[in-house]
Amino acid sequence: MKILYTAEALATGAGRDGHVRSTDGRIDMDLAVPKDMGGSGNGANPEELFAAGYAACFHSALQAVARSAKADLGDSTVGAKVSIGPNDAGGFQLEVTLEVVIPELPHDQAQELVEQAHQVCPYSNATRGNIDVHLKVTDD
Fold this sequence. Notes:
By secondary structure, the protein is α+β, with helices and mostly antiparallel strands. It has 3 helices and 6 strands, in the order βββαββααβ.
């Protein structure tokens, strides 16, 4: 792989109840275990950070495939839901649902672009075969 960019961050403290900071300082925040998992919920958590990154990355991939197809995405949005739960091996696993809204395109065309974006997106390529990723396409 020819590396185009490398992001770097450091987690300190108690992991999920610690602090995370990127080397450039753009991300600099306290973390907290979500209330749903028995924590205080008084900070961001890794699943939120992953959801934000995946949503943004997937939207960029969608825009790229739409440009190639000469399709206008209009006011499209991509939302990511990242869920965590126990697996059968005594650890934990993630599951993702990507909710894509492309109101200006017919559903079949929007679905095709989303499926193409799923083949291009680096997050999709990293998670493929490792976690379940569900694609949900709507027009509102």
